[in-house]
Amino acid sequence: MDSANRIAEQYLQAWNERDPVARRAQVARVFTLEATYTDPMAASSGHLGIDALIGAVQDKFPGFRFELAGQPEGHHEAVRFSWTLHAPDGAAVARGTDFGLLDGDGRLASVTGFLDNVA
Length: 119
Fold this sequence. Notes:
By secondary structure, the protein is an alpha+beta fold. It is built from three helices and six strands. It comes from Massilia solisilvae.
């Protein structure tokens, strides 16, 4: 799926966007209105819920950034990609893999996240 890389990059842009107005706009571009997000530590739904979750993570980890790790893969309505969370000094503090399901217009309808390694 050629769009797997684009989707993963846009998704991580939402997680890295610090400006609340720009982040909400990015969340709306990437996720469907009723999208769900779950990982071992959190669950959220809808644009407002996902935006609030991202904001809470940013508050807990100020200055940290998510980066794509490896090559995203996709087929049919599914996409899978891995990421690394870097501290402000560049140290990798967490790695994870996310699995998303897309709707007909290519936005994420659901994301399930897995933590592969937490320092």
